[in-house]
Design a protein that fits this description.
The protein has helices spanning 2-17, 25-31, 36-47, 51-69, 74-80, 86-97, 101-104, 153-167, 227-240, and strands spanning 131-136, 139-149, 177-182, 187-195, 207-211, 214-222, 247-249, 253-258, 269-278. The chain is of the alpha+beta class. Strands 1, 2, 3, 4, 5, 6, 7, 8 and 9 form a nine-stranded antiparallel β-sheet that branches.
Length: 279
C-alpha cells in the first residue's frame, strides 16, 4: 500500500526535476508503477486536476518567479518552459496569472502560485463504499465509440452522452455500458454500448469489442447521475485503492454500467467495474 503511495509521490518529484524538460505521461506512470491509463485517472482524483494542468501550472509559477526576479528575456523564459513562441507564452501567462508580462515586473504585482503537491493519505475510516470482487468470463459489447484525450475527457464525454440522449429511439443502442478502453496512454476510446447478442446483427454504425475475462471489483453508485458516479469514482482512487491488499489493477479499461431509467433520480443505481488480478 505505502509503496504505491510513495511511487506516486516519486512521480511528482520527477515533474519538479524535469520541469523545464519534455515530460511524457509514460515516464511519470512508470515512476508510480502504474499504466499511463490509470495514472492519469488516479492523478485527477487525488489532485483535483489533470496531469497536464498541473504541469502547466507549475511551469507558469516558476516562469513568473524568474520573470519578476531577473532581467531575463521573455523569449528565453518562454523556450525554457516549453513554449514555441513569445506570443503563445504571453497568452498562457495572462490566462494563468491575470496580468500582462509587463505588469509582472512592476512593484507589488500579484502573481498566482501553485506549490508542489505532496500526497498524504490517512486511512482512519471514512464513508462506506459498497463493492464486491467477482470473476467474469469474457463478454462482448456492441456500440459506438469516440476517441478522447485524457486532458479534456471530463468535459467532452458528457457531450457524447447528450448526443446519444438527443437521438432517442433512433440511437442503435440503449446505453447499458460506458466503457473506457486505453489506446496509447494519452488517448482512449469511450464506448456507449450494450451487451452483444450473437443472434442479432450488429446495428449499422456500431462495432463490437470483446472484454477480457477475469476478476472485477464492482462498485455500487446510488443516487442521481452523474454525481453519484463521480463521487464513487473519486473514492475508488483516493480511499479504496490505497488500502487494497492482495490485488492490483489489471487491464487498461474500465466500465460504467447503467440500470434502466427510473422515475425518481434518487433511486437510480449504476455501477463501476474495475479489472483486477491477484497480487
Amino acid at each position: 500500500m505505502w509503496s504505491w503511495i510513495e511511487g506516486f509521490q516519486d512521480s511528482l518529484g520527477l515533474i519538479e526535476e524535469k520541469l523545464t524538460d519534455a515530460l511524457e505521461i509514460k515516464e511519470l506512470a512508470d515512476k508510480a508503477a502504474l499504466s499511463p491509463f490509470y495514472y492519469q485517472r488516479i492523478f485527477s482524483a487525488l489532485c483535483g486536476m489533470t496531469v497536464g494542468e498541473y504541469i502547466r501550472a507549475r511551469r507558469m509559477t516558476a516562469a513568473a518567479q524568474e520573470l519578476a526576479g531577473s532581467g531575463a528575456k521573455v523569449i528565453d523564459i518562454a523556450l525554457k518552459y516549453g513554449y514555441d513562441s513569445p506570443d503563445s507564452f504571453t497568452r498562457a501567462f495572462q490566462r494563468f496569472h491575470g496580468i500582462t508580462l509587463s505588469q509582472t515586473r512592476e512593484p507589488g504585482a500579484t502573481l498566482r502560485s501553485l506549490v508542489p503537491l505532496h500526497i498524504r493519505i490517512s486511512l482512519e475510516g471514512g464513508s462506506m463504499l459498497d463493492y464486491r470482487i467477482v470473476e467474469k468470463a469474457p463478454f462482448t459489447i456492441v456500440g459506438t465509440k469516440r476517441r478522447f484525450n485524457s486532458e479534456t475527457s471530463y468535459r467532452e464525454i458528457p457531450k457524447f452522452w447528450a448526443e446519444w440522449a438527443a437521438q432517442g429511439e433512433k440511437w442503435p443502442v440503449m446505453g447499458t455500458f460506458g466503457a473506457c478502453v486505453d489506446m496509447d496512454g494519452k488517448e482512449f476510446d469511450y464506448w456507449i454500448a450494450d451487451l452483444y447478442r450473437p443472434w442479432e446483427e450488429i446495428p449499422k454504425g456500431c462495432e463490437a469489442y470483446q472484454v477480457p475475462g477475469g476478476l472485477w471489483a464492482e462498485f455500487v453508485c446510488k443516487g442521481p447521475l452523474p454525481e453519484s458516479l463521480q463521487s464513487v469514482n473519486t473514492k475508488i482512487w483516493t480511499e479504496w485503492l490505497p488500502s487494497l491488499k492482495g490485488y492490483e489493477l489489471a487491464g487498461n479499461y474500465n466500465l460504467e454500467v447503467y440500470s434502466p431509467p427510473v422515475d425518481d433520480p434518487a433511486e437510480d443505481v449504476s455501477y463501476i467495474w474495475i479489472p483486477l488480478r491477484k497480487a
